[in-house]
Design the sequence.
């Protein structure tokens, strides 16, 4: 014996999920994202979907979001990765951050390479 149409129940579930997402306290959500992933989620977080689930024996609401993340990749002249960082994280630009403990021979080699490049540019 059927008491109601399954589409009515599913529609009500979708409305409940949308209502919960609409009334989230966004500040703690953004703060959790910042603390967990070191990403600033201001203005780049969008609710996509959700579902009613069972978590450890209790009913829970799973909300899915899209988060737009801008990031920078820093490469050396050989194409080797130096750093990858979120430009939203509030960290300083990897290209502008000093090496924690630069090694004098490495600095001398790099300075030599730069001098050679400048010499080649000036010859042209």
Sequence:
């Amino acid at each position: 014996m059927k008491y109601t149409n399954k589409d009515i129940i599913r529609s009500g579930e979708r409305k409940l999920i949308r209502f919960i997402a609409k009334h989230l306290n966004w500040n703690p959500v953004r703060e959790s994202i910042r603390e967990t992933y070191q990403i600033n989620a201001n203005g780049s977080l969008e609710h996509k979907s959700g579902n009613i689930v069972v978590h450890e024996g209790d009913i829970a609401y799973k909300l899915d979001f899209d988060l737009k993340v801008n990031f920078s990749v820093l490469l050396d002249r050989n194409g080797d990765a130096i750093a990858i960082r979120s430009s939203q994280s509030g960290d300083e630009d990897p290209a502008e951050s000093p090496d924690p403990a630069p090694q004098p021979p490495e600095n001398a080699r790099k300075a030599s390479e730069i001098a050679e490049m400048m010499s080649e540019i000036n010859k042209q």
About this structure: Residues 6-67 form one domain.
